[in-house]
């Protein structure tokens, strides 16, 4: 009875210690989210379950109602624990950074052990035990050898890892030798395994904590170096920025002076350009708008009439028998007559939107936006009467003049060609001439009919 109590106490203490290591590593895993702590927690759990399978605690407390599982428990837990130990070894010692092929080989080997744990459920236990025992020892040996390899490469953490694995590895050899009756130390093999597992769990937990701390120190060192470099760069940057600000201020001052000069120059150029444009749109003889201006203005008013659906009136005016004036009095008197007619027409216009243009020779054209046919006819009739009643005095001669005019009014429709209104005004002009001159003829262009007005 005393022996049983002592056995229970030793096994209980061992399991409690292993459980404490599991809790500590799970807390590390929760705090750091690093896979190595999670994998190591799993390794310690399955290593403890393997130990429970060996010393009978599992069959007594955990799976006492499943004899079948009890037969396979050791094979399952030992394979999974070896698979997890390989994963821990790969992550802890960062094998990939030293040899990527060996890291991939370790990952493949860990998958193999997980599969072998599954195969243990279907392969006869005696066959599986004899084969897998050797394979398990090979897996343990491989990590042990790779740990020694990194030890000799100068990896400090590999030394602690190898020492921890060495204790468990030596204990397994001793237990195996006792099991084969090669020698007997007089100590219960379960106690040896429990002690070795507890010590290895403690050592590897310390190794993980040491690595975590070392990584923090390395990170702190890197951050300190980066901070020092940042401060140095900031100082240099501040100096550069100060120089840039000075240069920027000087540049802005020079640019302001230059911009002021450019503004003055542009203003002068704009004024000259405006003057030039005005000259380019004025008729040199009469001072009214010229043909080039009319061509652009006419198109613009056609489009506005089409857009706003307002009436547009175009008036063509021609001085009657002007060739006879030139032939009888000369071209200089003829020029005075043209200027006098232009002045009379210009004085008759009261709206800023109305435009008078010299169309060519003795012909003039009026653009009257938003003007009905009747309104245009009244305006042009007044102009005709004024010119008829106002003889021109030039070079000692008194010349009586008359004009003929043609008016075309329309609302520009999308289907109406742009030149239609002008052409209709020209046709009305020739009708006025054919009717005896000194007359005004007009027409309203619509979709249904055309209304003429005298």
From TrEMBL:
GO terms for biological process: cell adhesion involved in single-species biofilm formation; negative regulation of bacterial-type flagellum-dependent cell motility. PROSITE patterns: GGDEF. Keywords: Membrane, Transmembrane, Transmembrane helix. Residues 310-445 form the GGDEF domain. Its cofactor is Mg(2+). Signal peptide: none annotated. It is an enzyme of class 2 (transferase). GO terms for molecular function: diguanylate cyclase activity. The keyword Transmembrane helix applies. InterPro entries: 7TMR_DISM_rcpt_extracell_dom1 (IPR011623), Diguanylate_Cyclase (IPR050469), GGDEF_dom (IPR000160), Nucleotide_cyclase (IPR029787), Rev_trsase/Diguanyl_cyclase (IPR043128). It catalyses: 2 GTP = 3',3'-c-di-GMP + 2 diphosphate. The keyword Transmembrane helix applies. Its EC number is 2.7.7.65. The chain crosses the membrane at residues 6-28, 40-63, 69-93, 105-125, 131-152, 164-183, 189-210. One of its GO terms (cellular component) is plasma membrane. PANTHER family: DIGUANYLATE CYCLASE DGCM-RELATED, REGULATORY COMPONENTS OF SENSORY TRANSDUCTION SYSTEM. This is diguanylate cyclase. It comes from Paraglaciecola hydrolytica.
């Amino acid at each position: 009875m005393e022996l049983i109590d002592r056995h229970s106490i030793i096994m209980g203490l061992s399991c409690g210690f292993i459980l404490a290591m599991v809790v500590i590593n799970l807390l590390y895993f929760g705090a750091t989210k690093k896979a190595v702590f999670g994998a190591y927690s799993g390794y310690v759990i399955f290593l403890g379950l393997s130990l429970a399978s060996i010393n009978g605690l599992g069959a007594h407390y955990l799976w006492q109602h499943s004899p079948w599982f009890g037969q396979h428990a050791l094979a399952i837990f030992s394979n999974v624990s070896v698979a997890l130990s390989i994963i821990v070894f790969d992550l802890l010692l960062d094998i990939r950074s030293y040899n990527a092929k060996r890291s991939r080989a370790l990952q493949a080997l860990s998958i193999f052990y997980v599969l072998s744990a599954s195969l243990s459920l279907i392969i006869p236990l005696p066959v599986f035990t004899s084969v897998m025992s050797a394979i398990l020892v090979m897996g343990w040996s491989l990590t042990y050898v790779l740990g020694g390899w990194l030890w000799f490469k100068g990896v400090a953490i590999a030394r602690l890892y190898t020492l921890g694995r060495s204790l468990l590895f030596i204990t397994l050899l001793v237990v195996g030798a006792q099991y084969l009756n090669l020698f007997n130390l007089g100590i219960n093999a379960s106690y040896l395994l429990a002690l070795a597992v507890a010590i290895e769990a403690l050592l590897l937990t310390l190794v993980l904590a040491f690595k975590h701390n070392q990584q923090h120190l390395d990170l702190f060192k890197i951050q300190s170096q980066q901070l020092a470099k940042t401060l140095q760069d900031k100082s240099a940057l501040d100096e550069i920025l100060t120089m840039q600000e000075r240069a920027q201020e000087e540049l802005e001052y020079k640019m302001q002076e230059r911009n002021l000069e450019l503004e003055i120059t542009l203003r002068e150029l704009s004024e000259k350009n405006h003057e030039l444009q005005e000259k380019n749109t004025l008729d040199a003889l009469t001072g009214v708008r010229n043909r080039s201006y009319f061509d652009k203005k006419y198109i613009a008013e056609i489009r506005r009439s089409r857009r706003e659906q307002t009436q547009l009136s175009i008036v063509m005016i021609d001085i009657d028998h002007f060739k006879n004036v030139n032939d009888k009095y000369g071209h200089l008197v003829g020029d005075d007559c043209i200027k006098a007619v232009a002045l009379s027409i210009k004085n008759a216009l009261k709206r800023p939107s109305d435009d008078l243009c010299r169309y060519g020779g003795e012909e003039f054209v009026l653009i009257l936006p938003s003007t009905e046919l009747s309104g245009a006819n009244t305006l042009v009739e007044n102009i005709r009467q004024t010119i008829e009643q106002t003889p021109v005095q030039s070079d000692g001669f008194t010349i009586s003049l008359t004009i003929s005019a043609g008016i075309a009014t329309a609302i520009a429709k999308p289907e109406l060609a742009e030149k239609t209104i002008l052409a209709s005004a020209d046709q009305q002009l020739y009708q006025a001439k054919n009717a005896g001159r000194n007359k005004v003829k007009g027409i309203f262009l619509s979709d249904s009919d055309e209304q003429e007005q005298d």
